[in-house]
Structure formats: C-alpha cells, structure tokens
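User: My collaborator sent over this chain with a note saying "see what the structure looks like." That's all I know about it. Can you take a look?
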Amino acid sequence: MNPSTRLATCLWFDGRAEEAARFYAATFPDSAVDAVFHAPGDYPAGKQGDVLTVEFTVLGQAFLGLNGGPHFTFDEAVSFQVFTDTQEETDRYWAALTSDGGSPGQCCWCKDRFGLSWQIVPRQLNAGMSDPNPAAAKRVFDAMMTMTKIDIAAIEAARAG
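Assistant: Without extra context I'll predict from the sequence alone. Here is the result:
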C-alpha cells in the first residue's frame, strides 16, 4: 500500500482476488492493479506461492483483495455507488458488471460476477430525487422504481412532468 494511504477497503474473495482486481481496473477509469503478493507459506485457503493479497485502486479508491477462501461472501449490506454523467457511461458500466455471471437488480443495483453489489447512479437521478418540487421528485422516484438500469431520458421526462 502506498505509505500515504490511510484507509483501504479489504474485500474477501475465494481465490479470485487478482481476477477481480484486473476486471475492475479494466472497467473503471483511475483504476489499477498496484501490487500482487504471494503467500510465503501454506494457509487455510491456499498454498505457498498462491496469490494471497492484491492491492488495487478503483476510481481512485484503495482496496485490498484477500484470497481468504469460501468462508465469507458478499451480500447487499455493502455496495459501491458509481455516479455517472451520461447514458453511455451508465450503459458501459452496467454491461461490464452484469456480464459473465453478473446480474441486474432493481433501481440501479446490480451484482458483478464476484458477487459484489453495485449501484450505477446517473447524477440526473439524484438531482431529480432531490428536486425542490415534491411532485417532480415523486415522479422521478416512481419512474426509478420501475427500472433496473436507469434510463436518464425517462428520469428527465418524469422530472419535467
């Protein structure tokens, strides 16, 4: 980890930490696989020489992937929100995350192939939900509730009434 890093999120994987880190680095800007560490000895989830941890950055945020074995898995209690500016950006992230074993969810939520939950949130959705006109905010909310991936044009139309 960079010595100036003060906080990193540790994500527990079942042997796929490096694969996940490389996928996230290829999917999002300002992302990279920073370091891969191999186990100096056998451990409960692997053998000496296996990838033990991976330091990586996603959208400028520090993460550590730990190949800890099958004991713990991800659930919806934790998700990552990615804010987008365009439909193209929204579509690109959504397609990448839901491909190859990922799955769509309701109201901008999806899961990637590793089981992590994501929310791909166009900024227009947040702007519409916080509209000072309660009727406009309700229309945006009602429109969102019918969607999986957010359709920005439909959100803007709902906001306009």
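A starting point for your reply to your collaborator: Strands lie at 9-13, 32-38, 51-58, 61-67, 79-84, 103-104, 109-111, 117-122.
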